[in-house]
Amino acid sequence: MALLLWLYIALFSTLCLADDPYVFYDFKVSYITTSPLGVPQQVIAINGAFPGPVLNATTNYNVVVNVHNQLNENLLMTWSGIQLRRNSWQDGVRGTNCPIHPKMNFTYQFQVKDKIGSFFYFPSLNFQRASGGFGPIVINNWKIIAIPFPEPNDDIAVLIGDWYTNNHTALRTVLDSGEELGLPDGVLIKGKGPYRYNKTLIPDGIEYETIN
After folding, report:
1. What is the DSSP pairing of strand 135-140 with strand 117-123?
2. What is the pTM of this model?
3. Where are the domains of the chain?
4. Strand 55-58's sheet: what is its strand order?
5. CA distance 196 to 20
6. How confident is the model over 16-31, as pLDDT tens digits?
7. I want to staple 131 with a disulfide (CB 3.0 to 4.6 A). Which of 21, 30, 116, 168 is the partner?
């Protein structure tokens, strides 16, 4: 009887995994010309946007991302901070993935198992992330599972990082020559350069917390 009960529990657990919901994304990775620091330059966009769209899921969801490479060089997309259990070939790094050739596509599929929090994705080849191609990942908790802090009013994904006005190809050439890049030309917040006016992203009267 105990053995039958164990088998029943194991079968039920397997069925639960099979029933975990799916979310689907379609990423078209291409070049656009924009001026994050006031100087027109080539950046890498996803679906025409820089930074790329928020990849939003809930813990234990299955995530499917179809990545179309519209660049003129090979591409891999990696999911920083996401544990890819038993499917490291979805990690999007050289050695575990074959590159996506220009005008080709590849569909990544992975489960955000037991994950809650903020992460980000970016291209892992040829220093491409220095030209963009990145975006936030938000993994929400199940509503039936309590979180160890007060329920927030809202979540806002803010990407902050150094930025150069030269594209990744020029920067990679400098590094390959043995030289240093030097100080960045500026800092971007959500893909934007310095603001003329000091305005906050959070309306007055709402408590907020910054998580690094």
Report:
1. antiparallel
2. 0.80
3. 20-141+154-189
4. 55-58, 135-140, 117-123, 77-80
5. 46
6. 355 789 999 999 999 9
7. 168
CATH number for the region 20-141+154-189 comes to: 2.60.40.420
> Do the Cβ atoms of 44 and 71 come closer than 8 Å?
yes
Instruction: Tell me: cis bond preceding 148? Omega within 30 of 0 counts.
Output: no
3-state secondary structure of 6: helix
Distance of alpha carbon 201 from alpha carbon 156, whole angstroms: 9
- In which element (H, E) is residue 173 found? helix 168-176
For 102-132, the pLDDT digits (tens) are 999 999 999 998 888 889 999 999 999 999 9
User: CB of 77 within 8 A of CB of 99?
Assistant: no
Place of tokens 């070939």: 89
Question: With bands split at pLDDT 50, 70 and 90, how would you rate the model's confidence at 211?
Answer: low
